[in-house]
């Protein structure tokens, strides 16, 4: 009996979406007379279909794209602001470390010059910035 109900339900669903031939229409009508549950299910399907037909399509409303772009630009500005202030905390820390290193070089050097403050005492500019391209080529 379960397979008969199942085939009747399939026929009911088919009849909702596509035309059925005379034999199928007759089987469906007989099934509806004999099976009140199938009749109730058919009524529910038709009610749902009617509700869906009457319901207006949802709309995002006018100027939806402009509103979305405005929100995106606003949040992008907020992110830039947050990133700047996130690194601002670290900027202060890094500045403090640099000042501490400069003061350490100042107090630990023998003479007070700009080179000693930056820890470049005894170094010549050629030692610091020279690149010997032929160093590996000489025997």
Give a verbal description of the structure.
The protein has 139 residues and is mostly helical. It has two domains: 2-54; 80-139. Helices cover 73% and strands 0% of the residues. It contains six helices and no strands. It has helices at residues 2-17, 22-34, 36-54, 64-108, 114-117, 125-129. Helix 1 crosses helix 2, helix 1 (2-17) runs parallel beside helix 3 and helix 2 packs across helix 3. The protein is rod-shaped.
Indicate the proportion of strand residues.
under 5%
- Report the major sheet: none
As a percent range, the share of helical residues equals over 70%
Distance between the termini: 100 Å
- Structural class based on helices, strands and sheet pairing: mainly alpha
Q: Give the averaged pLDDT, no decimals.
A: 77
Low-confidence stretches: none
Question: What is the helix/strand order?
Answer: HHHHHH
Overall outline: rod-shaped
Q: Indicate the radius of gyration in whole angstroms.
A: 42 Å
Helix tally equals 6
In short:
This protein is 73% helix and 0% strand.
Identify the notable features of this structure and list them briefly.
mainly alpha; 2 domains; 139 residues
SSE diagram, text form:
Blueprint (H helix, E strand, L loop, with lengths): L1 H16 L4 H13 L1 H19 L9 H45 L5 H4 L7 H5 L10
């Amino acid at each position: 009996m379960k397979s008969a109900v199942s085939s009747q339900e399939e026929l009911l669903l088919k009849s909702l979406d596509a035309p059925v031939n005379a034999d199928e229409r007759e089987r469906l009508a007989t099934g509806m007379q004999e099976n009140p549950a199938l009749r109730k299910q058919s009524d529910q399907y038709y009610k749902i279909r009617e509700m869906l037909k009457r319901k207006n399509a949802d709309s995002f409303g006018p100027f939806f794209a402009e509103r979305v772009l405005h929100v995106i630009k606003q949040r992008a500005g907020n992110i830039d602001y947050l990133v700047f202030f996130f690194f601002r905390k670290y900027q202060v820390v890094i500045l403090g470390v640099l000042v501490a290193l400069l003061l350490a070089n100042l107090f630990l050097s023998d003479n007070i010059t700009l080179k000693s403050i930056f820890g470049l005492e005894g170094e010549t500019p050629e030692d610091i910035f020279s690149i010997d391209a032929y160093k590996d080529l000489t025997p």
